[in-house]
Write a structure and sequence with these properties.
Number of helices of chain A: 0
Number of strands of chain A: 11
Number of helices of chain B: 0
Number of strands of chain B: 12
Shape of chain B: globular
Distance between the termini of chain B: 41 Å
Largest sheet of chain A: 7 strands, mixed
Structural class of chain A: mainly beta
Helix content of chain A: under 10%
Radius of gyration of chain A: 13 Å
Strand content of chain A: over 45%
Order of helices and strands of chain A: EEEEEEEEEEE
Strand content of chain B: over 45%
Oligomer: heterodimer
């Protein structure tokens, strides 16, 4: 029973070529999050949505954008990926006690 | 601001050894506390949680007790298995849908 689904699991892009990562959820949670994680470090929050209310972290680069067209779906757009953007990108939703349910992640490689 | 401090890794144990991973926190109010586990190449999985003082979270043989007096939420398991090898993250969140605050993670390796 997949609850938070991320596609694709692996994404390869070229330096500067825009890329979109997708996330969907079957939990009907109001809150969705995007994290960046490098080398088993703690995940770094990029932004989150409470319903359609968008919250951008202060240090999230302008190169990263997000869309949430409805409750179930959320997208991460990287407009001009650099080598430093290679990472695992994690999507999560928030439950009753604020516990977060994570998807399996998308590993992004930038050539 | 809120913060989580967990013991540095890596931690290497033999199978069936006792595991403790220390986690302490600084937070205003009454946060909820979590342990997440991340297996290689995968996302984070919620391992256990505790939402108020003295609560004990438990799952898959792992336990952690919310100790408000010592602001701690140490993870323990009586007998680890090779399949427990992963990175473990302690985290907290305060009231409302506020984002998680993570510790830096502790890598555990269990050898047969």
């Amino acid at each position: 029973d997949a609850m938070v689904i991320q596609n694709p699991r692996y994404q390869v892009t070229q330096f500067g070529k825009p890329v979109t990562l997708s996330c969907s959820q079957t939990l009907n949670h109001n809150v969705m999050y995007w994290y960046q994680q490098k080398s088993s470090q703690a995940p770094k929050l990029l932004f989150h949505y409470y319903d359609k209310d968008f919250n951008n972290e202060a240090d999230t680069p302008d190169n990263f954008q997000s869309r949430r067209p409805n409750t179930s779906f959320c997208f991460l757009d990287i407009r001009s990926p650099g080598l430093g953007d290679a990472a695992m990108y994690l999507c999560a939703t928030s439950g009753l006690y604020n516990e977060q349910f994570f998807g399996p992640g998308t590993r992004l490689t930038v050539l | 601001g809120d913060s989580v401090t967990q013991m540095e890794g890596p931690v290497t144990l033999s199978e069936e050894a006792f595991l403790t991973i220390n986690c302490t926190y600084t937070a205003t109010g009454y946060p909820s506390l979590f342990w997440y586990v991340q297996y290689p190449g995968e996302g984070l999985q919620l391992l256990l949680k505790a939402t108020k003082a003295d609560d004990k979270g438990s799952n898959k043989g792992f336990e952690a007790t919310y100790r408000k007096e010592t602001t701690s939420f140490h993870l323990e398991k009586g007998s680890v298995q090779v399949s427990d090898s992963a990175v473990y993250f302690c985290a907290l969140t305060n009231s409302g849908n506020t984002p998680l605050v993570f510790g830096k993670g502790t890598r555990l390796s269990v050898i047969a």
